[in-house]
Amino acid sequence: MVEIEDAPPSSAAGGRALSPKNALLNKYEVGKILGCGAFAKVYHARNIATGQSVAIKVINKSRLKNSATLTNNIKREISIMSKLRHPHIVKLFEVLATRTKIFIVLEFVKGGELYSKVAKSRFGEDLSRKIFQELISAVSFCHARGVYHRDLKPENLLLDENGVLKVSDFGLSALADQVRLDGLLHTFCGTPHYVAPEVLAKKGYDGAKFDVWSCGVVLFVLSAGYLPFNDPNLMNLYRKIYNGVYRCPKWMSPDLKRFVSRLLDKDPNTRITIDEIKQDPWFGKGYKEVKFEEIEDLTGVVKEEERKLVDLNAFDIISFSSGLDLSGLFDKKFSSVDDVERLTVEGPPEKVIKKVEEVVKAENGSVRMRKMKDCGVELEGQNGDFVVRLEVYRLTENLVVVEVKRKCGDAVLFGGLWKDKIRPVILQQPEVEVAGCCN
């Protein structure tokens, strides 16, 4: 396996992909670098099996060791993005890892950041409306699921090759369960020019109203071509935001100015809500609500009879590690077959269970199998020599996690059955080790 940073310079600079032989985890050809952040690099890559372009965010594990905040942000981002499926939100495909790095595989949005487009020239009112409608569609979807982005800005909004908006970077997002007893969030966060005035007051704020304010700043930037609140002195900037001091350009239509004033209302109690935004005449021109059924169709949602399967998102994988410590997740520490092994494989859960069934049948009665309520089975050796539970959790649309636990009995007897017969049959493609001890 090749570490991405060790790739030849031409791969990053010239855009030539690595050969499949040296591809990341035998799955992705990694090409040019798309961007760098304080703790991660993002690369363009291609899925070898499907040819699909993806973006891979690469996080060096060593950068997480001394930062609980950064670690929590990454956990939160993975957890949230794994649950959000919407045509205007960047899709998370899977999370992979080596001993030293974490790889977050995301939808590749070819057009790049909205910021780079609006920095060249302000948008016309119709285009600004269309992009803002897509933004509100995504934000409304998030709020309905208890997710507040808290860092909406053109740098975190991407456009695909057709000019369709995609919201990205949920690292500063909050969940509804983070709200305190007063019904408010209290963490100071966001980007200075886009932060809501009530956040500056440090008395608690409503996450949904914070996002509406940020959306208002984004709309202003799209239409005006500059920030509504700006000052080289940070304290002066915050003073302008807190007092709601801004001026609309003369080319803004009266309806747009009125609408912006409702978005940038410094009083969160009277600021326009998402539902009211959708009823506004300026916003509503040509707007078509994305229906929930349409979203489900886009994501390849499972059939009704499959809904009983246990879903497992990437955050749950992290939770498998002792103390929720990321370092424990990606270090390969094996003990004995007495404990547990977890690995990820491609394919639906039912297919994994069927393969196990076939192996058991071939044992001619020496192993008995009982199906469990959820997607799993219990295997018992002849005369009760061992009892093992095998459960399958859905990770993404195409990946599952197989967890094998020995409940009791002879570890050696089951170890041979697992290592020599069941495991090889389950793994049709190279697996990605998640955590475990059977080897």
From TrEMBL:
Residues 307-331 form the NAF domain. ATP binds at K57. Coiled coil: none annotated. Keywords: ATP-binding, Kinase, Nucleotide-binding, Serine/threonine-protein kinase, Transferase. Its cofactor is Mn(2+). Residues 28-283 form the Protein kinase domain. CDD domains: CIPK_C. One of its GO terms (molecular function) is ATP binding. It catalyses: L-threonyl-[protein] + ATP = O-phospho-L-threonyl-[protein] + ADP + H(+); L-seryl-[protein] + ATP = O-phospho-L-seryl-[protein] + ADP + H(+). It comes from the Eukaryota. SMART domains: S_TKc. Pfam families: NAF (PF03822), Pkinase (PF00069). This is non-specific serine/threonine protein kinase. It comes from Penstemon smallii.
